[in-house]
Amino acid sequence: MSVRITEAITYNFAAVHGRSAGNLPLVHHFGFDAEVKFQRLANGTRRVLSTEGGPVAGMKFILTGPSTCKIVNQDMTYKGHGGRNGIVCIEGVAPGTGAKLELKNGTGKTVDAIDLHVGSFVSIKVRFYNLIDGKGRKGVSTIPFAPVPPMFSEASLDNLVDRVNDIVSGQCDCLLDVKGKSSMIDLSTPDDLGNRVDHNKFDIHKFGDRDKDAQYHVVFVWDIYDTTHSNRTGSALD
After folding, report:
1. Structure pTM?
2. What is the DSSP letter of 149?
């Protein structure tokens, strides 16, 4: 197997948070795609890459193409886990495409190369809602004047957003930003939506009193039935 560039570190969410991933590979690759030889990073952020497939004595990393990245440092004597050899830290310095990170041997021949895409962080405004139908069903049920259930408190929802940002910030250079003065807005309808909200029959995103400033909407429901989606959960996303 020839030497190729790979990521130095992967982050397994299931293992770190003590959960079973089932059939889902909950692994964070920090914007790296081994199949298409592609690394994405945001302007001002850094990524650490390595190699696999054999010794790298006499080899070095170089950047070619537009000056969208810089090499912070590299150490080809590094020995990492999983047969990784050599290490390089790159930093995005200007948004753009066309740059490459190349691995060259002692004669100057390119052994492997990956494309680099530097973007800018984008803030996405998100809002949470509690759906209430004409029969009094609620996505989040609370007793009047009682504390909000812990999993739906403002601090808890902020923690949920933080967990999401742990994933998306490194993968696609965006951050969710909770908008509004309260953690959740009530969305009420006189319709009887049944024990399961059918997304094909009732558009839960049609409400005119939704936050006009938000770009991403999360609606909590009591149960959802959607024949066009295999994912049936207690929330609906737009």
Report:
1. 0.65
2. P
